[in-house]
Amino acid sequence: MQSGSAVGSLIRWPLLLGELLIGTLLHRTIGEGAVLAWFGELNAKERRTMGACFGGWALDAFDVQMYSFVIPTVIALWGLSRGEAGLIGTVTLLISSLGGWFSGTLADRFGRVRMLQITILWYSVFTFLCAFAQNFEQLFVLRALHGLGFGGEWAAGAVLMGEVIRDKYRGRAVGIVQTGWAVGWGVSALVYTALYAFLPEAIAWRVLFAIGLLPAILVFWIRRHIDEPELFRSRRSTGPAVGLGHLFAAFRGSYLWTTVKVTLMVAGAQGGGYALGLWMPTYLRTVRGLSATTTGGFLLVQILGALFGFLLGSYLSDAIGRKWTFMWSAVGSLVMILVYMFVPMGNTGLLLVGVPLFTVFLMKFPPMGPFMTELYPTGVRGTAQGFCYNGGRALGSFLPTLVGFVSESLPLGATIALFSAFASVIMIVTLLLLPETRGRSLQSLDEAAPPTPGPTLAPIAERL
Fold first, then answer.
1. Given pLDDT bands bounded at 50, 70 and 90, which one contains residue 456?
2. Distance separating the N- and C-terminal Cα atoms of the chain
3. Angle formed at CA 387 by CA 385 and CA 389, multiple of 5 degrees
């Protein structure tokens, strides 16, 4: 009986983390009537869904960010070039785009909650297997397979959140859940710092990846406590069957141009973020000359800035709108990356400037989920969000590799700044072509949705 109780407590830890950070920290400490007191108005289902998605997103970041920390180690141990190290990062992101697209489509057919469970289990297992890689080729394949789950988790979780949380609070709720990325990133940095302080690097990086199996525990809690959204169940009972042709639903009719513009906007956001985030530990260690543990301390301060960015983006998403939050973040990112990389400063100044840098870089992500949720009706929402977010990630994923290869000829800091600034410009231009969606009712989107297109590949899919 005691053993079962211990296992039950272990399974429930993501829920407790979500309740603590989303409930106690953001509600009790601010008092009634304050900016975030809206959390108290959410019902039990909304809160549980927030907790599940918060845990999934935090653990996703925990696993994904590990590779950025071990890049200097595998470069030294295996004699890799920066280009090869960047290629491993790119293949993860590139394959994650397929994972997100397929997961979104499968979420429209089998359910948001079921796909959330499958993707969490998938990325946990393949992160664990990375601990046993013996060379570049093996790590390349394992990180590619990890990407399928990494991309799929966001697609399923973002749609689930968007459909469960009421229209009035969708932007803030989805944004607060996005702070889980900073929490998972921070925990990953803490574990990295501790392992590298006490273990030889040749062993520490393997232990770090092995710990990545822990997120699989969250699946057990999700199976027991989270139900499918009413919108999805209603659509599945009355709508047409979802087949193979549904993969391309976001490219039909009036959805096509919206899908193209959103994908390019996300490419700018993701590309700039990955060019900076993936190479920051290497920049601090090889250019600034910091030790592994000091680098971990720097990253924790930067992650604090990221947390501020998520919280600020969550508030601004509903306060000034999704589009203007994106715009301020893109412009701020363009300015701050140039300041960070080109203005002469000591390590203390660099540490302090890292906070506003990561604040403006990360405040663009909280509105992503609600923005895309409010652009598409329920029938195509999963596949559309899955493609836009992860298709953008695929396009942006080439930037880390380009940074790796170009930095063989140019200084690493200048190369990071060049590609991050370019990504911000892409985001700014595409935003000028996109609408504001704050306040849109999902019910009204479904009522205005065009009829389901004619022939699809559904009959073929049924026979596969």
1. very low
2. 45
3. 65
